[in-house]
Design brief:
alpha+beta; two-stranded antiparallel sheet; 9 helices; flavoprotein; oxidoreductase
């Protein structure tokens, strides 16, 4: 498979990067704590082409590679708002692709009672519910009064509902499976961006912070920390791009296994790089005035969406076990056949 990005994909990545630098700057990030998205953001995102990137040809996975490139930038700049679910919902919710309808979302297994935590629910127009075998849409007005709850990530406000009512069915089993896989890949892309942002923050500090007359980045112990961060983010990025490419063209490999691998590696990279950024910044890294805690908290939040690293590792292990078991059974069958012939 050819993994090289073409000129159009690179241009889109650069356009989204410039957009994020303008709309989601990290210089005064504390001003965004708990705040809703700025007016006009959704129109701008629609004009950029991000919200509708999965809407055309969704059944074939067209657009998932471009979406992954965009969401990597959103993760690196700690973008706010229900961008992920609005993008995933575009093929199923009219108005989501052009920014007229903002969509929050939640994954629920059948039989789930409550309470239910929904990110960005206060600024959504509808709630998309991803169940095991279907997709449902609930208008915001039909949701019950919320109960108390506090967010882990200050840039990801949440609302806690005692329960989520049954909504209008907008997709079946295949749609739910496809949306879940796209969610895994785009969540992985967000985590790759978070891991890259944490690395950039640690690297800048290591070059600027002087101790004993030299930058701390010249110390071998710090070099090793930064090198490990770089390896983690590049492995996760490669796996995420591969998952997106495989989803776009299933002939390239096992799309389900690729998505599991991407979310697993990206989750590990996001959390580990967030923690390491705190360590590199030392005493300052533990304070809320610095950037590392934002990256670490966002990684924790993203880790719990569309399957944790433990869940994906278990799925990969089961797939490998089935593959090996099938091969062993085949080998045993061949041996039995040879013995019978002899």
């Amino acid at each position: 498979m050819q993994f090289r990005l073409d000129e159009d994909q690179l241009a889109m990545r650069d356009a989204v990067r410039a957009f994020c630098a303008d709309r989601f700057g990290l210089g005064d990030i504390a001003a965004r704590d708990g705040s809703p998205s700025e007016p006009g953001l959704w129109t701008a995102l629609a004009e950029l082409g991000v919200l509708g990137v999965l809407a055309d040809g969704a059944a074939a996975g067209i657009g998932i590679v471009e979406a992954a490139l965009a969401f990597e930038q959103f993760g690196e700049h700690l973008a706010g708002g229900p961008v992920l679910w609005s993008t995933l919902a575009a093929p199923f919710v009219p108005g989501a692709a052009d920014g007229k309808v903002r969509v929050a979302g939640v994954e629920l297994t059948d039989g789930t009672t409550g309470p239910v935590v929904v990110e960005h629910a206060a600024e959504c127009d509808v709630l998309l519910v991803l169940r095991d075998d279907r997709l449902e849409v609930c208008p915001r007005a039909e949701l019950p009064p919320p109960v108390e709850g506090a967010p882990l990530d200050p840039l990801t406000p949440v609302v806690v509902f005692p329960y989520v009512p049954a909504g209008r069915v907008v997709g079946g089993v295949a749609d739910a499976r496809r949306l879940r896989r796209s969610g895994e890949i785009l969540s992985a892309a967000l985590l790759v961006g978070v891991a890259q942002g944490a690395l950039d923050t640690a690297r800048r500090h290591a070059l600027e912070r002087v101790q004993f007359g030299v930058p701390i980045g010249s110390f071998q112990a710090v070099k090793h920390l930064l090198a490990d961060m770089y390896v983690r983010v590049e492995l996760a990025r490669s796996a995420t791009y591969a998952a997106a490419a495989t989803a776009a063209d299933p002939r390239a490999g096992d799309a389900e296994r690729a998505a599991h691998t991407a979310k697993l590696l990206a989750g590990e990279a996001g959390i580990a790089n967030g923690r390491t950024a705190v360590q590199v910044l030392g005493g300052m890294g533990f304070t809320w005035d610095m950037l590392p805690h934002y990256f670490l908290k966002r990684a924790w939040v993203l880790e719990n969406g569309f399957g944790t690293t433990t869940w994906h590792a278990a799925r990969l292990g089961a797939a490998v076990g089935e593959e090996v078991g099938g091969k062993v059974r085949g080998d045993v069958g061949e041996v039995d056949g040879d013995l019978a012939l002899s």
